[in-house]
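Revision sheet: structure tokens.
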Amino acid sequence: MDINDYMHTLGRQARAASRAMAKADTAAKNQALLLIAAAIRRETAALKAANAQDLDAARANGLDAALLDRLTLSDKAIETMALGLEQIAQLPDPIGEMSSLKYRPSGIQVGQMRVPLGVIGIIYEARPNVTVDAAGLCIKSGNATILRGGSEAIACNRALAALVKEGLRGAGLPDDAVQVVDTTDRAAVGALISMPEYVDVIVPRGGKGLIERLMRESKIPMIKHLDGICHVYVDDKADLDKALRICDNAKTHRYGTCNTMETLLVAQGIAAQVLPRLADIYNAKLVELRGCEQTRAILKDIKAAIEEDWRTEYLAPILSIKVVGNVDAAIDHINTYGSKHTDSIVTEDYSRALQFLREVDSASVMVNASTRFADGFEYGLGAEIGISNDKLHARGPVGLEGLTSLKYVVFGHGEVRQ
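Predicted:
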């Protein structure tokens, strides 16, 4: 197989399919989503068998625990994929929606219409659920997509691709609206990011190395985030029971996700009360703690945190802890060391909560909630194509609207410009 020829074939097919998808009606798109959801439930056993094949190969290749966690498809994960598709089907169709219609002095009426982006290339590692989430969002938003999953999930992605195509055919939509790159050759990525004539946007979902490479090499605009260095700040006006639950969940619910807390900030006035209790929780779950000098004065047996810890996304049972003077110091630390992904404050002080929301420069900012909620499914988007910490076009979890653009529309009555 010549990879360049193969990828250009996928590109041409996707471009043709994108034109059909752009004019597909809502009923057909929803039907496709529901058919895919039903097929996923029907084929649960087959999907788990394909996933087991991928997991065996991944273990043999020495993949680390975080990647194995992302790769695993449990019964719950399979059901969540199906539920995500059904939730997307229930969402309003954004395509064709017109807004801001206003009459101008000339007599014309000017507004904006929401339209698909066109062809979206999605590059991701592990996580076979991305195949379904991405397919569902692209179908509902009237886009075509080329999905390049990681080699470690190839068996599962092939099985899911067949179910997606089954659903598209059943709804009378083109098979090529969703294409999974059926090769593990790494050259496919280089070809995909070099086809602006066929692909309108690239969405990378993977490790830092992958995204850094794409930032250097892509000839196509991207929707992306590089790191998930997320913080929880426990204010001295916090409810301690809330703080314990949130800080536990934000770190230990799952270690290998981009919305997991990596740095805990604690107000000086409450540190002596809250840190020992949190340390008991983390020690019981074998989380390695690294602390600043003030933290180590309270938790004497933990490792010293170094400058690099504040800039590190561990994706592992490791947590850095810093005692800060107040909410201003917490905000300053987050805006200095964070990755503009997700940050949370635990406080009962309304003014401080609002200050935190206004001044923390991140895609998702929370009050009294775990950072693990920064997710398209939890935000009611049905699913997410990814999370963006960029400031242009889309920011935060990217759902249907993030996969669309706006064009100006003008209604006239025979007016000509004077």
